[in-house]
Design goal:
Blueprint: H1 22-30, E1 33-40, H2 42-45, H3 53-64, E2 69-76, H4 82-87, H5 89-92, E3 100-104, H6 107-111, H7 118-134, E4 138-142, H8 148-151, H9 155-173, E5 176-178, H10 180-189, H11 211-230
Parallel strand pairs: 1-2, 1-3, 3-4, 4-5
Helix pairs in contact: 3-11, 7-9
Length: 235
Amino acid sequence: MAEGPKHCNTHVDRFSFRHPLPHFTESLRRQRKIRIVAIGSSSTAGEGEVIPYPARLELLLRGRSHDLMIDVLNRGLSGQEAPAELSRFEPDVFDEAPSLVIWQVGTNAVFRKEAFNFDDVVGSITTGLRWLADRSIDVVLMDLQYTPAVVTGDKLPLSKDIVTRIAIAAAKARVNVFRRFELMEYWVLADGIPIENLVRANDGEKLHMSDWATGCMTTALYEAIRQAVEAPPST
């Protein structure tokens, strides 16, 4: 695989959040110890030698607020999808008392399409968002990665379908979506970055993100969170 691009364009003007993060913002103002839980599958857990996004995000957030103890707890398990992740909410999310949850969903519903029903996946997402809202926890849903394993052949329409369903579920719950799929697609179609640069060189499945893509994606996520925190309160 060719070496990844040097420049990271996060296109934050196109991919900012639509809603504030009131509980996380308040925790930054009033607490010294702040917890974020990242739950999902291999994009969250990490794959191979690539440092996953939760550890990278923690460093970026701590760099912004040196006087705060910000922990991003990695609760990713490779191969899982929203129904199994939902079953882990009590021990892996609620018991940690986070002010923000980043929930990565949708990838395995497409990659392992024979194992999942989209209605069941979206139903679990809807239930999870309701549980989080009842506990006054802010949420960012993270959708699919744009890699060959989920955009080649018959996988592309499936990916676009689940991306749309995730967006609809988020809109109904009035929570943010980190539109990873659209951002990575924009890198390829608008920025001219070869899609091969977005996956690990030794990943035969062509599913898991490269070090460059993971790093740039994390920066984009951090910038979206920072903008949501710094935005003036809505009237």
